[in-house]
Design a protein that fits this description.
With 145 residues, the chain is an alpha/beta fold. The chain has six helices and six strands, in the order αβαβααβαββαβ.
């Protein structure tokens, strides 16, 4: 069945996951500052020398697919920052990172930090819960900057 172009555009506007490989701290800061209020940005901070990061990074495409296929109507942008790159080291202090991998969700003028076992499923569910206003926030720590 072939869908009309206008319907495809509507579908794409409702469920959008934008993925980017490594971005710099400067790009991230600029992006977060200028992001539309209707968007949420999920950022994973990692290091290429961290074994937990190496285990987590292959989950990112699955996470993106889960967010894209969810009933969540808010736009989610998924970014990745390698904190080992010298230009990205300020992210550690700016976002109060105590270790990597770390996952932060920027939305509605707030920042929430994921804690717990990182898998595409758990992070996707956590993201959907936060964006839907769920009161189940046991695995989220709000950090004000």
């Amino acid at each position: 069945m072939k869908l009309p172009v206008s319907l495809l555009v509507v579908v794409l506007l409702i469920h959008v996951v934008i993925a980017a490989d490594d971005v710099t701290f400067e790009e991230l800061t600029s992006f977060i500052t200028n992001q539309p209020s209707s968007a949420a940005t999920l950022v994973t901070f990692h290091s290429t020398s961290c074994r937990f990061c190496i285990q987590w990074m292959p989950e990112i495409p699955d996470l993106e697919a889960m967010l894209l296929n969810s009933e969540q109507t808010e736009k989610v942008i998924v970014l990745s920052v390698n904190v080992k790159k010298p230009a990205n080291k300020p992210a550690i202090n700016q976002f109060r990172l105590t270790g990597v991998p770390s996952v932060l969700l920027f939305h509605d003028g707030r920042i929430d930090k994921f804690s717990g076992h990182r898998s595409a499923k758990t992070v996707s569910e956590w993201t959907r819960d936060l964006l839907s206003g769920s009161t189940e926030r046991a695995s989220a720590e709000s950090i004000g900057l």
